[in-house]
Structure formats: C-alpha cells, structure tokens
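Lecture 7 notes: from sequence to structure.
We start with the chain below.
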Amino acid sequence: MMLDNLKKYKVVLASNSPRRKELLTGLGIEYVVKTMPDVDESFPDSLVSDEIPAYIAREKANAYRTIIEKDELIITADTIVWIDGEVLGKPENTEDARKMLKKLSGMTHQVITGVCLTTQQWQRDFTATTEVRFAMLTEDEIDYYVEKYAPMDKAGAYGVQEWIGFIGVESISGSYFNVMGLPIQRLYRELKGL
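Predicted structure tokens for the same chain:
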C-alpha cells in the first residue's frame, strides 16, 4: 500500500461529514470516526481568509488533546467560503442560505479548507484554496435548491457535488475535492511525508 507509513498510527477522522468520510475512504486507509459534541468553531475577528479554517481546524484538534491515545493520528478540518473579504460558513437558516447563494451568484469565490494532523507528540496544519466561479442563479433556482437539498450543513450553503453545482458552477481552479470539504490530494501528500 502507498501509505504503509501510517500502519504505526490508528487514524481518526474527527468529523461527521459524509463527504469527508467518502473522500478519506477513497485513499484506501483504515480509519475510525470520533467526534466530540459542541466543539467551538468561533474565531477571532482579526483573522482573514485562510487563517480562519486553519485556526478552527487547530482548535478542533486541540479539543482532542486530552483524550488522544498514544498511537492515534487525529485529522480535523474546517472549510469556509471567502468572498469579497467576508467569510461564509454554514447558514443559520433557510433565509441565510438564500442570501449566501444570492451573494455567490455570478461571482467568483474561494473555498478554503484548513486541515490539522495531530498526535500526542506533534501537530501540523495546512490549507488549500480553490477558486469557484458561479453562473447567475435565478430566484427559482436558489429556492429549488434550498427546499430540495441540504444546504444547512455546508459552508456557503452549497454542495458542489449536488444539483446546484451541476447547474451553477462555471469553472473551478484548484482541487474539486477541496470544494467538497477535504483537499484529499494534498492530504495524501502530507500523510505520505510523515
């Protein structure tokens, strides 16, 4: 196997995201999912752009520091949408989701994921940025997506792998998988280098 160096670790994905689980499974490594309830995802107002998801991924990892076992390698991640100097996280309600999608309509934004790798001995983190260009979306298209799909658990209120991605995404520069929530190619390189 390409990641034989991971055999000394029990790999733990600290995320309930079905997309992150799917992507990590695609690497062919064995892992378990462990999550803690109510991990704080707030961040200082002074942070911008890629500093935000890197900070939150580290904070998520630090929440595990007291319970991490000797042989565990914890993977935490956080994804944001960054547009016009503003961060779009997960929408608070359907109206918030509609506002986010209207803001993204006809615009280019960045999807930024921070990933943190943590053991008892060390911690390292990295970020990945993907530029996404959206077509103009009609009110009906936005309403249809918000009503029929699940934008509430997604940064920027959209899943690129869902209907809105099919009809809305004009172009992507960078990792498609990063837009799904985990820059899996970069994660593979980082894990391979351990």
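Points to note: The longest helix spans residues 51-64. The chain has a mean pLDDT of 95.
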